[in-house]
Specification:
The structure holds 2 protein chains of 2 kinds.
Chain A (H helix, E strand, L loop, with lengths): L6 H30 L2 H4 L14 H9 L3 H32 L5 H10 L9 H10 L7 H9 L2 H12 L5 H8 L4 H12 L1 H17 L2 H7 L8 H4 L11 H35 L2
Helix pairs in contact in A: 1-14, 3-14, 4-7, 4-8, 4-11, 8-11, 8-14, 9-10, 11-14
Chain B lengths: L1 H6 L10 H14 L1 H30 L15 H8 L1 H33 L5 H7 L2 H4 L2 H11 L6 H8 L13 H29 L3 H9 L4 H30 L2 H6 L11 H11 L3 H33 L3
Helix pairs in contact in B: 3-15, 5-10, 5-12, 10-12, 12-15, 14-15
Classes of the chains: A mainly alpha, B mainly alpha.
Chain lengths: 280, 321
């Protein structure tokens, strides 16, 4: 009926989808193909679409070229997880307050929180740099975790608030009637019910933290031991030549964890993210 | 909230002696909703005050000094005067706006096209929807390393493909020339931002009531007509929202340009954010960098006000969106 497409129409749609997804996926495809080729084959001009020697050798060699690679990957994970934990610590109580209570200054303060989303860390780097230097936090994990979490708190509050608002209030009221304190109610009644929402918010914060490590890492940290992967990958760019195949292999390894997480949770994530922004 | 709040507020000890009454009031205050709510919000608020609000104020202060790595002293509005009289800076500003205009228009247009495609009832759309996401969730820096390789003149696939079909006669380094570097950066920025815009527009399209389409279909309206007269007006709030958010994000976009070109060649891709970063962090001229940051923040505030105004208008016209 209405949703039926004639055959040429269908073909046209599929061609358009192919072009669209082609653009989106081209870098990943080429990253993967590059990671499979030996370096000499990459440096052939004119460009060759096919190589006669595909192998996973780069995935083995990259650990030797950049011996710190495992450390960088671990750093990336550690920083993102810490950012998530720290951010949630601030997000949960505030989101609960905004979801449940009416008070003076509610919408204004929420607006101010959301206004933080407008800034990127890039404009505040100077004072942040001085702040971190004064407290001796430059070149530590803290330099990447503390500012990193701050910029994700508003988004988290907004997402979690939308979720909490959907939890029926009656349960809390019942707990309250039984003489439970507010904090006890929050901890024992609300949070367990909010677990799915907390997971969505936690994963969204984690993914964002993982995606945005670069700026704070290159600005506030110059110690290799604490470098996260996106900054550490730059080491494949040598003085003489760039080991593109290994760099791409490391990139693939670096994006794999987030892709896997996303694959498992994508339905909830997309629903959670778009609901928070589109409704209300 | 009204009745529920009443029930959630068991004031105790409202009767009794004067000292007891005072205690009761204190208890009431502690238990009152507003106080409890603010206590819950306080940690987040204090944290953001330290990491965002204070640095913002400090940036404004620094912009009136000649702060550098050695020290600082007050120099009035000299930094701003220097900026406003600098031709290079006005070029940077207009370049930034051109960059924003191009990137945001492409994101919105292709986001709309993409969302329409992904909304079409064709087999495989669940997978297509998933395949749109990667640029959104992958670290921006890593995606940009991929693009860096794609744009390589001798060994990259784009130059290779264009040579193969005969558009280019020889290798072309996309990031080495002013114009091509600029447009290459725009394309990468679109690539990073497109998935999110697409997904939000798709979500909005899915929310359009089906009976609208059915009624139009029965009346013999063509697909294009239905798209124009039903889909577009129905998702207009989301189009507006995404446009303004894209403006803000594109304006703030740092990593993409920094990894691809570091603002070069010959400043061809130096946007306000890149200029600020270069001045402050690469050259340690904190004062001059701060003045640029203040200008960036002021422009962002204007965009934000437009955003709030738009949201308000949307709410008024379309009800709860």
């Amino acid at each position: 009926m209405m949703d039926r497409y004639s055959l040429p129409h269908k073909v046209f749609l599929y061609i358009c989808v192919a072009i669209f997804l082609g653009f989106i996926l081209l870098p990943f495809f080429e990253m993967f193909m590059t990671s499979l080729r030996p370096l000499e084959h990459l440096f052939r001009s004119p460009y060759q679409f096919w190589s006669d020697d595909f192998s996973f050798r780069a995935y083995a060699q990259m650990w030797e070229t950049v011996p710190m690679l495992p450390r960088y990957i671990a750093n990336s994970m550690f920083i993102s997880l810490s950012v998530t934990a720290l951010a949630l610590l601030f997000i949960i109580p505030a989101a609960y307050a905004y979801a449940r209570f009416d008070f003076k200054g509610k919408s204004i303060s929420l607006g101010i929180f959301l206004a933080v989303n407008m800034f990127s860390g890039a404009v505040l780097l100077i004072p942040l740099y001085k702040l971190l230097r004064n407290y001796g936090l430059l070149n530590t994990y803290f330099a990447m975790i503390v500012p990193g979490a701050a910029f994700l708190v508003p988004m988290g509050i907004w997402l979690l608030k939308s979720y909490l608002e959907k939890i029926p209030r009656e349960l809390e009221e019942a707990a309250f009637m039984d003489g439970a304190s507010r904090l006890y109610t929050l901890r024992r009644v609300v949070l367990p019910l909010a677990v799915p929402g907390l997971i969505v918010v936690g994963v969204a914060v984690f993914l964002s933290a993982y995606a945005q490590q670069f700026l704070f890492a290159i600005t506030f940290n110059s110690v290799k031991d604490y470098m996260p992967l996106p900054a550490g990958i730059l080491e494949f760019i040598g003085y003489q030549s760039v080991k593109w195949n290994e760099m791409m292999a490391a990139s693939i390894v670096g994006i794999l964890p987030v892709l896997v997480i996303f694959l498992f949770l994508q339905r909830y994530l997309v629903a959670g993210l778009t609901a928070g922004a589109i409704k209300e | 909230m009204t009745t529920a709040s009443g029930e959630l507020l068991p004031y105790e000890g409202a009767s009794g002696g004067s000292t007891k009454q005072k205690q009761g009031m204190l208890k009431g205050l502690l238990r009152s909703q507003a106080f409890f709510a603010w206590m819950l919000i306080a940690p987040a608020a204090l944290y953001l005050m330290m990491i965002v609000a204070w640095p913002l104020v400090e940036t404004i202060r620094l912009s009136f000094t000649n702060a550098n790595i050695g020290g600082e002293s007050y120099i009035g509005t000299a930094n701003y005067e220097k900026l406003l009289s600098s031709r290079k800076f006005s070029q940077t500003v207009s370049r930034t706006f051109y960059w924003m205009f191009l990137s945001v228009s492409f994101k919105i247009i292709f986001g709309l096209i993409g969302a329409t495609l992904l909304n079409a009832a064709i087999p495989g759309r669940a997978i297509f929807r998933m395949l749109v996401m990667p640029p959104w969730i992958v670290p921006i820096a890593i995606g940009c390393f991929g693009w860096l390789w794609l744009y390589n003149g001798h060994f990259g696939i784009i130059s290779g493909m264009l040579q193969y079909v005969g558009i280019l006669d020889g290798p072309f380094e996309f990031l080495a020339y002013k114009n091509s570097a600029f447009y290459s950066a725009v394309i990468t920025d679109v690539w990073v931002g497109l998935p999110m815009v697409t997904i939000f527009m798709l979500a909005a399209m899915q929310g359009v009531p089906r009976d609208l389409y059915e009624a139009a279909y029965v009346d013999g309206a063509s697909r294009w007509y239905r798209f124009r007269r039903i889909t577009i007006p129905q998702i207009l709030p989301v189009i507006i929202t995404m446009s303004i958010l894209s403006i803000i994000w594109t304006f703030n976009s740092f990593e993409i340009i920094w990894i691809l070109t570091e603002g070069g060649p010959r400043s061809a891709t130096t946007t306000l954010i890149i200029d600020t970063y270069k001045m402050a962090i690469a050259n340690f001229k904190f004062g001059q960098g701060a003045a640029r940051a203040v200008i960036v923040v002021s422009l962002l505030s204007v965009f934000s006000l437009v955003y709030l105004f738009a949201l308000h208008q949307i709410k008024k016209r379309f009800g709860a969106v």
